[in-house]
Write a structure and sequence with these properties.
The protein is of the alpha+beta class. It is about 15% helix and about 35% strand.
Amino acid sequence: MPPPRTGQRCLRLSSTNTAPYCRKAKDRRIKKDRQHRKASGSPTVSLSDDLLTSIFAGLSDAAAAVRCAATCRRWGRVVATSASIISPSLPPLGRFLPDLAVGLFHREIDLPAAASSLPCFVPMASAARFLLASQQRLLSVVGLGDDGGFLNHSRPVASRNGRLVLELRREGHAAGGLRLAVCNPMMRNSIVVVPPLISSAGTIQDYGCALLTGQDLRPPRCNSFFRLLLVYNHNRGPGNSTVLQCYSSDTGCWGREAECCVEIPSTKICDIGQAVVRRGVAFWALDLGVLGARLDQIDQHGAVMDMHLVPYDTPHWWPEKRLLGISPDNRLFFMYTGVVRCKKEKIMMANFSYFEFEEEDNIRTGTKGICRDEKHLRMPQMKMSHGNTAIKLRWFGEKSGLVLFTMGRPSGHRGTFVLNLHDEVVNKLAHDGDSWKNLLGYEMDMAAYLASSSVDGRSLLEKPPMPRVWRFAQCRTTGTRYITYR
């Protein structure tokens, strides 16, 4: 009797020991696990989306919410769809987050109206995820022209906490008063048109604007809430008079005019620009001090009740070289630029002075505070040819910590630059900008930041898929060249 052919049998078994065998083993293991869970009486519990939302709303900070969004696709979807519920419950950042800055808006000059009817948008590096992920998730501000020309010839006025204030300048509306619109460029169909402001003194040409959102209040209010505060001049009797006027979205109307505690000349009101907001108070930088007006508390007629001028230690007469900001620990600081000589070279330097208040919620105690230089930031990469830098400080991002400034031809560095206070680096954003008007940066709010944490089901912390690169390869046996990609 011949012996059994065990070798061939083993060879046959080894040849079939491939993927089908692994799949069968995996199926048996899954079936065994299910039977074990059924026998133990502890079935798998799947948390609902509402329960996950309540858990994410109790996290320590926004970074933890982003890490949760990167855990799996379902958590990323929950964080993205419930961002408006999660973001108000999170504590303040406590640090600058440069990724909140998306880009800047500006108006061209010396161009026909048809060539640039809408405000121009220049994206930053942090906006690449919106431009590369999906065309459907592109910044909707690019599509603002789909409104039938409603925003044609408008100009940006203020930008804070994900909101953008535009002044409507359509033909035929000049006699109807000052018309403003507030929108969220990260969301479509979010434009709120403010009723026209008709002043007894006539048309309002130059003014400063402050924007208060629901995130500035304690406790925070709904995302649709906002207040606008305008400071402007008009003629009353023999001279000019500076007044403040407030609009609140909850009432839907403008309040009464309030006489300002300081008179701003008409030649200076055009350079007052946008205000920064700290603890519900709007601050503007003037020549002799900082004008503060409490915006979170107004009287029954909608007028501003509390305002005060916090003086400088020394006057600052050049509005293009000064800028106000808010530090991560919620301190008001004053920034001004200059040129310093370092090793036989002239470089640009930024100086920061901090204001101190004896009572945090009382702006009148700022007169007794101390304004001192605490920080000097040198930028050795910005070598100046001479002392005339032609620099203009344009905008400060309160949450991102980015400073936008432009420089002219005399400096040797013409263009638009971004100073990152978190990393203390300077990057060039555009080769032009010294002639741009109404230049304002834009940073999204925390709700939009969390909503963008999962794009097309993929978290921003995940590595993007490698692009397909065509390349030539050669077969080692035949020597044939063929095309492949990865």
